[in-house]
Amino acid sequence: MVEGDVSVVGANEASCGELNVGSRNTFLGARSREVSRPTTRWVVMRLDLADA
Question: For all residues of the chain together, what is the average pLDDT?
Answer without folding.
Answer: 76
